[in-house]
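Hello forum,

I keep getting stuck at the same step: I have a sequence, I want structure tokens, and every attempt I make locally crashes halfway through. Rather than fight my setup again tonight, could one of you with a working pipeline run this one for me? It's a single chain of 77 residues.
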Amino acid sequence: MYQHCTDVVIHIDEDLSDNEIHALEKDLGGMDGVYSACVHERARHLMLVDFNPEDVPAGALLHEVQAHGVHAELIGL
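Reply #2:
Ran it on my machine without issues. Output:
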């Protein structure tokens, strides 16, 4: 089966603790169709998500972040 990969950046409005960031990375990374989700230590407001848009829409990624009570926006879509 051929798989597509694309990236999206999610801008996180709040200042999150390490535990909150790791929980977001884990939850997004565990979604079907998501290959990875990570926040760089120097850019803690930006989460890069690699995913297959045929398996999961970008809006579902944003919804998962918002389900953590975080205000966020998609960038680069």
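The longest helix spans residues 18-29. If your local run keeps crashing, start a new thread with the error log.
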